[in-house]
Amino acid sequence: MRIKIINDVNRLIEPGFSLDTAKKHSCYNGISQMAIFKAIEYAIQNNEISSLNFSYADMNNHNLMNKLEEAISKHSLEDRLIFEIVETEHLDDMKIVNSFIDRFKAHGVKIAIDGFGSSNSNFAYIFSLNPDFIKIDESLTSCILENEKMYLLVDAIIQFAHKLDIEVIAERVYSQELHDALINLNIDAIQGFFLVQPDENI
Asked: 200: left (phi > 0), else alpha (psi -120 to 50), else beta?
C-alpha cells in the first residue's frame, strides 16, 4: 500500500513510513483494514492470486478477521489468497498467530512468513508457523554476491525449507547478477525492482 500525495507531484509514500505514522496516531486499524479490502476487491475483479500482509495488530483484530472470513467465503477466494505474516512485528501471543493461521488455512488460504531473516527471526518460526512460503529478507539476499558466509546462509535456508516442502521467495532483487545467483541456489520465486517496478494503481 502506497499513499499518493496529490499536491506534491503525485509523490508516493512507502508503506513503512505511512503505517508507522498511523500507529502513532491510533489510525492503524482503519488504514490497514481499508488496504486489505482494497486488495480483496482487486483479487475479485482480476481473478488473480493476491498476497496480503498481516501484522500482529491485524491478527488480533476480531472484527477484521470476521469480515475477512466472510469475504473469502462469499467470493470463493480460498485458492487465490496468500496471507503474509510480517515477521518484523513483535508477535506478543503466538496463540493468536497460530489461531489466525489455522482459521484461514482451513479455508485453503496459503501462509507466508514475510522478511525471514530480519529482526529477531529464526528457524523456530518455520516450525511453529508451518508456512507454505518463506520470503527471505533483503538484508540477507542483497549481500550474497560479496559475502561468502551470507551466501552459505541463504543456501542453507533454501535447502532447509525445501526439505520441509516450503517454497522460498527472494525479496527486493535489484540486478541481473543477484537474480542469477539466486536462481543457481534453486530459489523458487523472485520479486523486486529488477523484474518490475511497483504499480501506483495497485
From this structure: alpha
Q: Which three cell numbers stand for residue 110?
A: 496459503
Q: Is 139 exposed, middle or buried (0-12, 13-18, 19+ CB in 10 A)?
A: middle
- The 10s digit of each residue's pLDDT in 190-200 is 988 776 665 65
Give me the CATH topology for the region 29-190: TIM Barrel (3.20.20)
Q: Tell me if 46 sits within 8 A of 35, measured CB to CB.
A: no
The Cα–Cα gap between 104 and 126 comes to 17
Rg (CA), the chain: 17
- Spatial distance between the Cα atoms of 37 and 43, rounded to a whole number of angstroms: 10
User: Distance of alpha carbon 66 from its chain centroid, rounded?
Assistant: 21
pTM summary value: 0.82
Sequence ranges of the domains in the chain: 29-190
DSSP letters spanning 101-121: HHHHHTTT-EEEEEEETSTT-
Backbone angles phi, psi at 135, to 5 degrees: -110, 115
Least confident residue range of 1-15, 22-36, 46-60, 131-145: 1-15
Strand partners, 52: 83
Using DSSP, state whether 196 is helix, strand or coil: coil
Please give the average per-residue pLDDT across 26-41, as a whole number: 83
Tens digit of each residue's pLDDT (9 = 90 or more) over 140-175: 999 999 999 999 999 999 999 999 999 999 988 989
